[in-house]
Amino acid sequence: MNNKEINAFFTMSKKEAERALSQYDGYEKSSADYQDLRKKMEARAKTKVRALVEGKLKLGDVRNEWDFAEPEAHFLAVFQGNYDDYLYAYFFLYHWGMHVYSTGQCLNGAQFMIQASTCAGYWKGARERDDWLQFKDIAKQTKIDRGKKVGEGRAFYFQPVREELVRLLISECPAGGWRFKTKAAEAVSDKLQIFIDTHGIDLKADNLESTILRWSSEKYPDVKAAFDKVVRKPL
Question: Where are the domains of the chain?
């Protein structure tokens, strides 16, 4: 590779690194949290690059940060579920690559740009996965809420039928009451069907007796109370 080709390779690697993050940029531009995170991570990366260039490292800082940025981000992602250090690693490797290139080490600079692209990909993938899981939970809850609304709507729709059922159970009850719930349901079903047809309520006649028995449960206390009054208790 001649110098022209090496410079072209660096430029291509730099553009690819910038593109890798900008793909996610557009999706998150409206998010203040993302912008704050990006500024924080880039400022942290620039500070570290400047300290390395000027030789002003603090006690405990490593001199070869470029060897640890990506592995440490991976460690935090795997063991702590924190993917944000991939964004720090991206900015550090990008700006360190720019510095290395400025010293004439074009191929090394390109290598850091390629590493930066990789970190951007890790971070982007992790964030998209989190978004997908969040949207999945939202969609699931929305489905549950819609189901509840449908159930509530159906309950309201059939309320007049249940009220008529209670009236019929009381008014049609024989002197000694019915011995079984099934007998009570059978006894009032014809007149209840007339009420349903008269009011144009969509409730199938062939399922009416089983529906009446289902309404005698704890879920419908008014109907249950009526059944309790008209069905004889076993001795």
Answer: 3-144, 158-230
